[in-house]
Amino acid sequence: MTKVICSEDCGNAPKKALLKEVHIALAENDAAFILENVTDDIRWNIIGDKLIQGKSAVAEAIEKMKDEKAEELTINNIITHGKTAAVDGSTKLASGKTVAFCDVYGFDGHGKNAKIKEMTSYVIALVT
């Protein structure tokens, strides 16, 4: 199980809570949780690496990430406004490598039950 470091937020921010859980699911390779919270036509652009389009492609990408076990996930900020959001933090992997990330999200609506339609990820390996 991944150790999660994230400051508590007010309980009246459903998208913030969802994004915290999405990042935990990414750290723990929980494809089922992620897939139930994205649209069928999800578009995930990992800047400088690859563009992933569609639920099945996202499932394949998460499967490939299983080799990199996350020991610790630190979420510094979760910012939401309307149909957009951003999350930044870092992940310490079992291999000893640490990566910093900033993910920008687009939702398919404004409501609290909106699904993630677009993800743009900026990932940088940190020198330790």
CATH class: Alpha Beta
**Low-pLDDT stretches:** none
Main sheet, how many strands, which sense, barrel? 7 strands, mixed
Structural class category: alpha/beta
Order of helices and strands: EHHEEHEEEE
* Amount of helix: 10-25%
CATH architecture: Roll
Question: Largest beta sheet: what is the strand line-up?
Answer: 1-4-5-6-7-2-3
Let me know the average pLDDT: 93
Radius of gyration: 14 Å
What does this entry look like structurally?
The structure is a single chain. The chain is of the alpha/beta class. It has a single domain, classed as Nuclear Transport Factor 2, Chain: A, CATH 3.10.450. Helix content is 23%, strand content 47%. It has helices at residues 14-27, 31-36, 55-64, and strands at residues 3-6, 38-46, 50-53, 70-81, 84-93, 98-107, 116-126. The protein has a seven-stranded mixed sheet. β5 (84-93) and β6 (98-107) form a beta hairpin. The two termini are 23 Å apart.
